[in-house]
Design brief:
This protein is mainly α. The protein is built from four helices and no strands. The structure holds magnesium ion.
Length: 106
């Protein structure tokens, strides 16, 4: 993978490579499993020293969680790139005003 990887690209990549007979159950159970592994890595503050040694690190487990989140999005035909701004608008109303945002999208 290269720089400039988008959520849409990742969803297509996962759709092309990952197949299961019962994908909803498999992807959801794997997501919960990976969240647990991420929790363990965070508790141990297991950080990757470089990209050749990521096994059991926060870096590896963050990707695992993202992977199964995107796999579930594919299963339900959810285009997350379209959902993100809609959900962020809801969050903005609920949690902060636009003036409070540190990150200003272009
Ligand atoms: Mg994992």
């Amino acid at each position: 993978m290269s720089k400039g990887v988008t959520v849409q690209y990742l969803q297509k990549y996962i759709r092309a490579k990952d197949y299961h007979e019962d994908p909803g159950r498999e992807f959801f159970l794997k997501l919960t499993e990976e969240v647990g592994e991420l929790g363990r890595a965070i508790r141990k503050n297991a950080r990757a020293e470089d990209l050749e040694h990521i096994k059991g690190t926060i870096e590896e487990e963050l990707w695992d969680v993202m992977y199964y989140t995107l796999a579930l999005a594919n299963l339900y035909d959810v285009d997350l790139e379209k959902v993100i701004p809609a959900k962020e608008a809801i969050n903005a109303e609920k949690y902060y005003t636009p003036e409070e945002l540190r990150y200003k999208p272009e």
